[in-house]
């Protein structure tokens, strides 16, 4: 995205429409290349106490699995457009509306059982999974994020929607959905709450995990 923005600034400073037009025509390509590149993330080094979380790449969107407080279940969370996920309105008008302006947003939640989250996914999940990334984070940070999401879940229980097609139930999320604030960007915000470094705001669901950096190294963007 940074490269694309630099190209925009360059094109706007060029003199004359004849010089500006070719650069503007390249912008969609630059944006597409930026969006398709994986977003690098880096978990914290040696978190104490440690906790395991699972980042799940579904191909176009992402979900996040956290351990439940009782230690017997896993909670899978996602974020997206309310009409698409909670009402199953997947037509072109709903999709365009979600891209054109902020729309009502949904928080999705699924409960899975078992010690091994990957095994639980294989057993209980019906939606496609392209890739999973296991991350080790601070257990206290994970508990805080889980409780924040559970509070949103409890607050929206009056308008809860069960949706078998997504293997989830949904409540309203207070932050509106848009192209600039889609499911993958919300996941990036959740990762940041777990002290996971995220190289840039993602558009598509493509992730690359970098090895954790030693604590003594200064904070910087991930670099695999």
Q: Which terms summarize this structure?
A:
224 residues; disordered N terminus; alpha+beta; 3-stranded mixed β-sheet; 7-stranded antiparallel β-sheet; single chain
Description of the molecule:
By secondary structure, the chain is an alpha+beta fold. The protein folds into two domains: 1-36; 39-209, no CATH class. The chain contains seven helices and ten strands. It has helices at 2-13, 17-36, 82-85, 92-100, 117-124, 139-155, 183-193, and strands spanning 39-42, 50-57, 62-67, 73-81, 103-113, 131-138, 161-163, 168-177, 197-198, 207-209. A seven-stranded antiparallel β-sheet has the order 6-2-3-4-5-8-7. β7 (161-163) and β8 form a beta hairpin. α1 packs antiparallel against α2. Mean pLDDT is 82; it is low at 1-34.
Fold blueprint:
Layout: H1 2-13, H2 17-36, E1 39-42, E2 50-57, E3 62-67, E4 73-81, H3 82-85, H4 92-100, E5 103-113, H5 117-124, E6 131-138, H6 139-155, E7 161-163, E8 168-177, H7 183-193, E9 197-198, E10 207-209
Parallel strand pairs: 1-10
Antiparallel strand pairs: 1-9, 2-3, 2-6, 3-4, 4-5, 5-8, 7-8
Helix pairs in contact: 1-2
């Amino acid at each position: 995205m940074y490269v694309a923005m630099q190209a925009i600034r360059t094109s706007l400073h060029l003199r004359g429409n004849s010089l500006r037009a070719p650069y503007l025509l390249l912008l969609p390509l630059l944006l597409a290349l930026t969006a398709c590149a994986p977003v690098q993330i880096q978990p914290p080094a040696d978190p104490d106490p440690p906790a395991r979380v699972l980042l799940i790449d579904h191909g176009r969107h992402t979900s996040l699995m956290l351990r439940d407080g009782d230690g017997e279940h896993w909670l899978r969370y996602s974020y997206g457009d309310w009409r698409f996920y909670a009402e199953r309105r997947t037509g072109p008008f709903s999709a365009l509306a979600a891209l054109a302006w902020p729309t009502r947003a949904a928080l999705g939640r699924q409960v899975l059982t078992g010690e091994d989250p990957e095994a639980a996914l294989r057993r209980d999940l019906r939606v496609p999974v392209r890739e999973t990334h296991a991350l080790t984070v601070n257990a206290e940070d994970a508990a805080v994020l889980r409780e924040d999401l559970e509070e949103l879940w409890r607050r929206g229980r009056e308008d809860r929607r069960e949706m078998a097609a997504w293997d989830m139930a949904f409540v309203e999320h207070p932050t509106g959905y848009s192209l600039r604030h889609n499911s993958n960007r919300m996941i990036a915000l959740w990762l940041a709450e777990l002290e996971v470094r995220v190289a840039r705001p993602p558009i598509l669901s493509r992730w690359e995990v970098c090895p954790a950096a030693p604590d003594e190294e200064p904070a910087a963007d991930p670099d695999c």
